[in-house]
Amino acid sequence: MNPIMSLSTTSSPSSSSSSSSTSSLSSSLSTPSPSSSPEIPPTLISSPLLRNTRTPTSPELRKSSTEKLPTNGNDLKANDFLTDPQSEPIKSGEIITKGLDCKTNGTNGTNGRLRSINYVNNDHLSAIFSSLNYMRKNGQLCDIILQVAGSQLKAHKVVLSATSAYFNAMFNSEMSEKNKPVIILHDIEFNALKLLIDYAYSGEIVISEENVQALLPTASLLQISPVREACCKFLLRQLDPSNCLGIRQFADAHSCEELHQTSDKFVVENFPAVAKTEEFLLLPYSEVEDLISSNHLNIHDENEVYNAVIRWVKYDLKSREGRLGSLLQHIRFPLIHKNTLLNHVCKEPLMEGNPDGKDLLIEAMRYHLSPDQRTNIKNIRTQYRRPKGLKTYIFAIGGGSLFAIHNECEFYDPVSDTWCSFAPTYKRRSRAGVTTLGRHLYAIGGYNENKELSSGEFYDPIVNSWEPLAQDMGTKRSCLAIATLNGLIYVAGGYDGASCLSSVERFDPLSDMWASVEAMTGRRRHGRLTVLDGCLYAVGGYDGTNYQASMERYDPREARWQLMPPMTNRRSSAGVATLDGKIYAVGGNDGSLCMNTVERFDPTKNAWESVAPMHTRRSTHDVVEADGFLYAIGGNDGSSSLNTVERFEIKGNRWIPINSMMLRRSSVGAAALECPNMEKILEALNHQES
Questions:
Q1: Which of 308, 385, 427, 582 could form a disulfide with 275 if both were Cys (CB 3.0 to 4.6 A apart)?
Q2: Res 181: pLDDT
Q3: The whole model's pTM is what?
Q4: Which residues form the BTB domain (predicted)?
């Protein structure tokens, strides 16, 4: 039955008053000849009589009108578009489609008949391409043959042109291949081409470790960008120390910029593991030199770079030994531990016979043996490497609240304004000194179990753990001042359990040794140290009798302390830090109450000046500079320990409260450290919690 006829040929039983011509027309439309199946003339479709015809309610008639329309697989029936005469007329734009995606274009008259529908078959494209693929596989209507190394693939030019810019240019220009029935392709693997032709018809392709090296260059040549990008993403997820150098070289050869940049970053971030692979040993000299000269190598110790160079040279000693001297120039020997230099590096035969190596070792030993002169030996080899992607975190260590002394530690992420726990110290410490040097965080001295401490420990973010220092200080100290200068950690003053101290010691992590230096001019308990213009400044404190406003400066080149202009207020247990070339003294205790006032020393004026006060009175807190801001952390307000934190913005001369610590901490130690992988630590901590 003609589907259009089934929608429009019946008349209403109530139309008996119609003219005979109308009855004749209705009769002729209701009984079409099975053999002829005539179409409805356009003039009849537009006839008012036909437009006003109602749908019969007879079940038999309605049943007969449910012949399927040719809908390419969708179960769309004729009566899906008919309305019950007893129901409300369909409003403009409405249609009953039983879930099919149809849009209407108004109704004609008041009886609900539709002017038109917009039918969408969402499966049409996939069905067409499925048919085309079937035709290709059966050699139907194929108009091109692609030949690679004697093997052939049949295809349709239009499909290839729609998928590949390479074929589109070939078949739509005046290239000689345009009218050739067979196209011979060179420098292409047949299996890779077959996969890409299959992709052109199906939109699907399986990328694997076995085929990606052939697939990516073929997709690049044929300019099939989606597959090329998918191959690059696949290789990105395969990056590993054992293959990253090869992937980097592969990406460079095929101009995959993002893949090259990411793999290069992976090499630098995982250098210690990469340097132990065979791929590293096979690198040419130029690439080895470029790699070890990078200031962004993510290493635990400079000795790892030295070992990598020696291993590379020995892999092909005959041809590479002459390159050793130039490679050694990029190794930062002064930053290698003294014991390693003496016991291993100096005894390496390649170093003993290399003039450049001898000179570099002499420079390194001078750096180790003359700590006071380190400022005079500054060059690239005395600077710690700085991995890319470093992020500054603020660490709060130890301290106490009520009668508890903490070993719990937490760090603050300024970007997310959140605090998170990390590995606890192996010893509980209150009133300790906390600082950073290189990639490590140090907690030294302090108070625990009713005694002052001489021990220290350091935190390594790579392994998220604390380790004790190899040697204790010469003096037990709590309430000490601490700062880092020229690769050395200085501790000054404090309290030994009997008296306030003026003595000063420094720790060299390159030798694991403590040494005494010139004592301060006065005793300082709860004083602070900070660094400005290559000198140490000791600020405030308590000498056992009086609260101090004094400040003195230590120049390591002269090895002596010199009194400087005093603060305007006496401050013990204050927070002191350097920001934008000025020294800030924040809060503290003047002997009668905790303070929220702040003052700063301007070396250009050689004088102190007041700045905006904090929101909260604080003493026994700590102040840290990070990314151009000051952070006042924890402490005591005179009645209770604090977990609150506020940040000073120099441009607005204002303090802003930020997210509080998880624990209340008075006598807390704090420091800022740039870490390349704290995100990994966060993930590990979250995994442990879950």
A1: 308
A2: 93
A3: 0.73
A4: 142-209
